[in-house]
Write a structure and sequence with these properties.
By secondary structure, the chain is mainly beta. The chain has helices at 8-23, 172-177, 189-192, 224-229, 479-484, 527-532; strands at 52-63, 71-82, 88-89, 99-103, 107-114, 124-127, 148-154, 160-166, 182-187, 202-210, 235-238, 241-242, 245-249, 252-259, 266-270, 276-281, 284-292, 295-297, 302-308, 317-322, 329-331, 361-370, 400-407, 410-413, 428-430, 434-441, 453-454, 456-460, 465-472, 498-501, 505-512, 518-524, 535-541. Bound molecules: CU-O-CU linkage and copper (II) ion (CU) (2 copies).
Length: 542
């Protein structure tokens, strides 16, 4: 069942090329050079009997997003080969999706067919699902156009809002930008014990930003600023649609939010000051609802909201907005060096004229259009979380340090770039063991080239994590105001797989590794950062 890996070396060569091209501000795709067919083969396994057998074709398509010309996009076209037809739901009029819906315990086979243009190798990663490493969509498993990859795994994760997206190294950001992404929604028996809005009242809210050119096409810059800082768009799309107004009834809804943007971070809030009611995070429901004035949602993260419109009148409108915040980029600590301040502000200019990170933006309008007599009541408890104990960690007394920082104008993990196959000694863990990792967002005050602090959404494959603590360093007071503009919005309860780490912050994570040995990646989920090499392997060893 393990597909052969024959592109490791090619991928590595491409990576070296990419870094040079990226630094020169050169076109991203120029570094991707696919010559000749790759002989990656993956065929269905005879003794794997799927409950659900799906086909997903990655291919070019067109969709009408703005008035006028249709937008050329890349989509996953899904179909059910065997199993419940409702397992795959297209989102009409959207490049996103399909939404895949499964029950915990189901065995799933998914055949990815790469029908993307020449040069576009691809592979799907099931973000948040803990599948064996060979099924996780490691970049080295990327397949060339016209090839197939067969995924076979059992869904062992708790009910939650997971998602899938491409993961070919150096091409992830541009492929997601072109439209490739979908939700993967898991249900289970625990969830079924809670009365939550369902069916037409259980809605996806995938938030992305884009830039359109004069001909309604996505415009994705290869400029150095985009490559180094991440893409920022000037147009918010919800489920692939601009200026979305959601017609609702006077009742409760379950909103499944995903930040599917390449790099933009949102500070979510209701426009009228109503508190957000959070019922779930990345990997499923919380044990009890949590009320927040605002909640942060970084690329890759999910949040489930209970949104009750039962007290409202017909015609009422309410907006989901992203509030203003600071400190996520362009932070230059001055206390330690003479370069302070020099690169702030102006550095953040964006070619597209897109609003800077942290600018207030409208995301979605909700309009009350229908009266409904009955509404659900928010449950006071949800599902049991079965959390780990920090004392169970094998390194409870000496947590592993993962330092993320900028060196030579690129973002690094423990001073290293991504290497398709390499696993350093400090990147080896024991399969099935429990560990504490401290993710340290380091800054280099006073360094001529690398003075900037930036927020990074940190994601680890193959695990769910608990956030044990957050600590902001106090030696550079420049961090504090920005930090205070976001810190009440971290929803760290429950199980996560992606965690926003602010400049100067250390986030302590607790996790149990996959029982099956294998190599997984961990990386920044700012997709431009990941493509640029802010990603590493870790090996779970038997
Ligand atoms: Cu959603 Cu490795 O990423
Ligand atoms: Cu992932
Ligand atoms: Cu990053």
């Amino acid at each position: 069942m393990s597909p052969k890996n024959l592109i490791g070396r090619r991928g590595f060569l491409r990576l070296s090329g990419l870094t040079a091209a990226a630094l020169a501000g050169g076109p991203l795709l120029a570094a991707c050079n696919t010559t000749g067919p790759l002989s990656v083969s993956a065929t269905p396994t005879a003794d794997f009997l799927p409950d659900l057998d799906l086909a997903l074709k990655a291919m070019p398509s067109e969709v009408a997003i703005l008035p006028g010309a249709a937008t050329r996009v890349w989509v996953y076209q899904g179909s059910v080969v065997k199993g419940d037809a409702a397992s795959v739901q297209a989102i009409p009029g959207s490049y996103l999706g399909p939404i895949i819906r499964v029950q915990k315990g189901q065995k799933v086979r998914i055949t990815l067919q790469n029908d993307l243009p020449e040069g576009q190798e691809t592979i799907i990663h099931w973000h948040g699902l803990r599948v064996p490493a060979s099924m996780d969509g490691h970049p080295r498993d990327a397949i060339a156009p016209s090839q197939q990859f067969v995924y076979e795994f059992e869904v062992t994760d708790r009910a939650g809002t997971y998602w899938f997206h491409p993961h070919p190294h150096g091409l992830t950001a541009s492929q997601v930008m072109a439209g490739l992404a979908g939700l993967f929604i898991v249900s289970d028996d625990d969830e079924a014990t809670v009365t939550l809005p369902s069916g037409a009242f259980d809605l996806p809210v995938v938030i992305q930003d884009r830039v359109f050119d004069g001909n309604n096409q996505f415009s994705y810059g290869n400029d150095m600023m985009t490559t180094m800082m991440g893409f920022l768009g000037n147009r918010i799309l919800i489920n692939g649609q601009p200026d979305l107004t959601l017609p609702v009834a006077t009742r409760a809804y379950r909103l499944r939010l995903l930040n599917g943007s390449n790099s933009r971070i949102y500070k979510l809030a209701w426009s009228d000051g109503t508190q957000l009611t959070v019922v779930g995070t990345d990997a499923g429901l919380l044990d009890a609802p949590v009320a927040r004035d605002y909640a942060m949602l970084a690329p890759g993260e999910r949040l489930e909201l209970w949104a009750d419109f039962s007290g409202r009148s017909l015609g009422d409108e309410l907006k989901l907005i992203s509030q203003a915040f600071t400190g996520a980029e362009g932070i230059v600590p001055t206390s330690g060096g003479s370069m302070g301040g020099m690169m702030g502000g102006g550095m953040m200019g964006n070619m597209s004229g897109a609003p800077a990170l942290g600018t207030e933006q409208d995301l979605l309008t909700v309009r009350v259009e229908r009266q409904e007599a009955e509404s659900l009541t928010l449950p006071t408890t949800l599902v049991p979380l079965k959390l780990l104990q920090a004392s169970d960690a094998v390194n409870a007394n000496a947590p592993r340090q993962v330092v993320i920082s900028q060196r030579n104008m690129t973002w690094k993990i423990n001073g290293r770039d991504f290497d398709m196959d390499a696993v350093a000694d400090d990147e080896k863990v024991k399969a099935g063991s429990i560990e504490i990792w401290d993710i340290v967002n380091d800054v280099n005050p006073g360094e001529m080239m690398d003075p900037l602090g930036m927020a990074h959404p940190f994601h680890i494959h193959g695990v769910h994590v608990q956030v044990l603590s957050r600590t902001l360093r106090t030696d550079y007071p420049e961090f504090t105001p920005g930090y205070e503009s976001v810190s009440a919005g971290f929803v760290d309860n429950g199980w996560k797989d992606t965690v926003l780490i602010m400049p100067g912050e250390t986030v302590r994570l607790l996790m149990r590794f996959h029982e099956q040995a294998g190599t997984f990646v961990y990386h920044c989920h700012n997709l431009e950062h990941a493509d640029q090499g802010m990603m590493r392997n870790y090996a779970a060893e038997a």
